[in-house]
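Dear support,

I submitted the protein below through the web form. The confirmation email said the job was done, but the results page showed an empty box. After a refresh the structure appeared. I'm attaching both so you can tell me whether what I see now is the final result or a partial one.
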Amino acid sequence: MSNPVQKADGKVRVIAFYLPQFHPIPENDEWWGKGFTEWTNVAKAKTLFPGHYQPKLPADLGFYDLRVPETREAQADLARQYGIEGFLYWHYWFGNGKMLLERPFQEVLESGKPDFPFCLGWANESWAGFWHGTNDREILIEQKYPGKDDYIAHFNKVLPAFLDKRYIKVDGKPLFMIYRPLNNAPEILNMMSIWKELAAANGLEGIYFVSQTYSPDDEYAKMKEMGFDAVNVVRLFDFEEKKPSIKKLAKLKAKLLHRPTVVEYRKAARWFVDKDFDSREDVIPTMIPNWDHSPRTGKKAFILHNSTPEYFAEHVSDVVDVLRDKPEEHKIAFVKSWNEWAEGNYLEPDLKFGTQYLEALQRGISE
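What the results page shows now:
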């Protein structure tokens, strides 16, 4: 590819969230045991009720190690083949220069391979509580906001990525996502201001700041007031507000049957897109192929049940519909996710469906 970020006219710009957790690090060895990666949770998952699809096991790419260059090349080849523009690598900067899971992306950056577009998303939250498989009182590592010197150091760390020819841009600006900007809005505002000045000083046209929210009705206006160029909306739990009877029934069954909270994918997927809201130019919708958190949290999990490539294809079509009238640069949709295996939330081929979810995505964005 002579220009890896070139886009075909009118095509949807699909960017997939990419988890770099699939390699051992000293911290995970300490917290979870020697050699822990996300595959540890994936492999030990169990069927928790009749018809529950677990364990979900990888097919084409196998139980890979992201320290292996050939694995990263194979992932990029597969994503490119099915119409994905690039990966958003989750980036963990906890303050005072502390990073985790940085090795896979750093090797992508330094090696120049794979020749496949990318951008970064700052996962600015402490590792603690339910979502990380611990009880709510445990903090494994705390997210800190130390001030100006740290924000400058953070910018300088990601600057080589911003300057890389593969970096995904919108309106000529490198796209950078901040996962939870309202966790400490004053410091995030300070950081964004400093980064804009540093971007100009380093020859960049600016930074295309994107925030993420699971509660757009409550948070969209606040994020726009902070100066974000766009807001990525993840409507995984919108059904709880739009159709509360679904949640009430799922909770009742969970209690009576001593099982996780289970909702049919097709019922929740009706609310994954809000046609009017998500059609706004500064809103980026999210495609959700599946969700099953039980490998991390067992019977405490929330599970979308009976997801199929056919249902996902319908959801992709809904997302494409809200993108049709947006300017070409802004026809962006994120996929949650490329490889969140322990959340049952992935596009990579598995032993049950193979590449069918990727095929469904490709059909939907090609229509």
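Response: this is the final, complete result; the empty box was a page-load delay. The longest strand covers residues 86-95.
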